[in-house]
Write a structure and sequence with these properties.
With 103 residues, this protein is α+β, with helices and mostly antiparallel strands. It has three helices and four strands. Strand 2 and strand 3 form a beta hairpin. One of its GO terms (molecular function) is metal ion binding.
Amino acid sequence: MSVKHFCMVMRINIDCNGCYRKVKRALLDMPDLEIHLLEKNQTRVIVCGRFIPQDVAINIRKKTNRRVEILNIQDLSESDDEIEDQKTVTNNWTLLSNQKCLA
């Protein structure tokens, strides 16, 4: 599996403040993660970035010694391509409109 832009939801048992700090420290040590969100009451962790989902889950498991369950993985790479296509269309339109104004 190649490194793409993913958003992943995991369930990690966070019982106390010590567990919360362990998970947070493990997430901060991973440079591939762009965004992370810890929901202590719902015992969920949401991470987004360019990574391989299984590697992140294994890495958190090793560092925290907690069971990690992957609930959902979204591939956001396809939407990034669509956004880039929209930017090029907008840039072309801007160039055309500027040429009409100059003429």
